[in-house]
Amino acid sequence: MPSMTTSKVSRWDQHGREHTVHVSKSGVQRALRCATCDWQKKAQFLPWLKAEEHLAEAHQATVDPAED
Ligand SMILES: [Zn+2]
Predict the structure, then answer these.
(1) Burial 37-57 (b: 16+ CB within 10 A, else e)
(2) Top-confidence residue, 27 or 55
(3) 58: phi then psi, degrees, rounded to nearest 5
(4) How far is CA 1 from CA 17, 38, 52, 64, in A?
(5) Whole-angstrom Cα distance, residue 42 to residue 64?
(6) What are the φ/ψ torsions at residue 16 (nearest 5 degrees)?
(7) Ligand 1 center from residue 53 Cα (angstroms)
(8) What is the pLDDT of residue 66?
(9) Ligand 1 centre and the CA of 28: distance in Å?
(10) Which residue in 64, 52, 68, 57 sits closest to 18, CA to CA?
């Protein structure tokens, strides 16, 4: 699980390309921004989950580089 201080979510796609969604604080919300396609979203809850969903759906990037 990502910690509360995590400021980005990175996943690799099946071609080994890294896709990153940056998470920044915006008041009580978190602002998400994808570095690959400039997708943006505001989320009050579970921003990292929404980032993972975007990476999986938009880029088929589901491999967590932190996992073996
Ligand atoms: Zn994207």
Answers:
(1) eebebebeeebbebbbebbee
(2) 55
(3) -85, -30
(4) 22, 25, 12, 11
(5) 23
(6) 80, 10
(7) 10
(8) 80
(9) 23
(10) 64
